[in-house]
Amino acid sequence: MQRGQFSSRLAFILAASGSAVGLGNIWGFPTNAAENGGAAFVLMYMILAFLLAYPAMMAELIIGRHTQSNMVNALQSISSTPAAKRAGWAVGMGGMITASLILCFYSLVAGWMLAFMLEPLTTLIGLPQLGNWLTEFSLARNVGFAALFIGLTALVISAGVEQGIEKWSQRLMPSLLALLIGLILYVLMQPGAIQGLEHYLVPDFSQMSDPKLIVSAMGQAFFSMSLGVGTMLIYGSYIRSDENLPLVGALVTLTDTGIAFLAGLLVLPAMFVAQHLGVTIYAESGSLIAGPDLIFQVLPALFDGMGAAGVFVGLAFFVLMSIAAVTSSISMLEVPVSYAVEAQQISRTKATWLVALIIFAISSTIAMNFDSLFGFVITLTTERAQPLLSMFICIFAGWIFYRNSILSEIQKGNPDVEQSLFWKIWPVYVKLFCPVLILLTFAQGFIG
């Protein structure tokens, strides 16, 4: 069976960066920075993105390209003993289930983005009641827009690697970047923006040693790269054999951290512009409002306060959020679909819609039991499963995958890699330091 392949380095970087740049990047990173010392957090995040996330991502890319396979088959094929093969199957299945569960709650949040994106249009055409329905929390809206979002994601994935993932990443990622920069320039010209800029960029280096800041920055670096669930491993399996893997991995890391930084330049100043217009931006605890309340309460109030221009700024912002959601969701859906296509020999179209239906069914169940399931699934997947799965992938790369096989795989696109700094550090680092650092982060999060 002919496997898909990214046609160029740029195509892979846009697709992988799209996978990494999601809703968490655009609202999670800025508010994390606001709560953890502004520039001190930003600096710590940049350091840890390269100290922890980059080496872990390289493990996935190398295993993926070497095995040319989905996560389950890949981890089994690099294992030489029956016990390691069983462990590979378990970790692979765990990654596939986790990616699917993330998409189940993610599609609900992304559905809200689509609803809020349409709301300014109802203002323009004079349908305020429809606008209220779009922005008010209800089961019908939540399930309906989750279905729409999952359908959009499935359409991209069913078209395959080049005609689906690559084609849409090449369209959506430049659009995301242009919208982000345009919104930043507009918001920075509003009253109050400079105060937000200071909050974000003026460092308090005394906070650099704060364990809470370090753990928060490590978690953000780790989750923003979509590690542990096989997305990078599968995207790695679609990279051409003559590509320089350490270089493309570094470029994805730079793109991801760059867009997270830009998101901070938009969201933090926007919050203080909202405060200037009379919107409450601090929670009762004294910290800045974060998460869904920021996106669905503070920022819409800001757009309302901008008058006629606010309708267009609000529309642009939620288009931006919807694009970020789609670029991430296509990589998540590809994880179970690639397994169904390769391991179960199901056609891509059939596999895509079958998996999409299962995800929609679970997503609807979460929506119907929102208070008890939504937060639980987020914690289970992003705070518990993802770090552990990534730790196991590092163990596979460091202890089970033959070192000579890794070297020969990287040499295909970089013949002189054996003399490079990357090869002098990475094999030992991924074997010893990455699993320990990830386990420490996990333990800290669990205790916290």
UniProtKB/TrEMBL annotation:
Highest taxon of source: Bacteria
Transmembrane segments: 38-63, 95-118, 138-160, 172-193, 213-235, 247-272, 308-333, 353-378, 384-402, 428-447
Keywords for this protein: Membrane, Transmembrane, Transmembrane helix, Transport
Protein localization: Membrane
GO cellular component, one term: membrane
Lipid bilayer topology: Multi-pass membrane protein
SUPFAM superfamilies: SNF-like
One Pfam family named in its UniProt record: SNF
Listed NCBIfam families: Na_transp
Official protein name in the record: Sodium-dependent symporter family protein
Organism: gamma proteobacterium HTCC2207
Taxonomic path: Bacteria, Pseudomonadati, Pseudomonadota, Gammaproteobacteria, Cellvibrionales
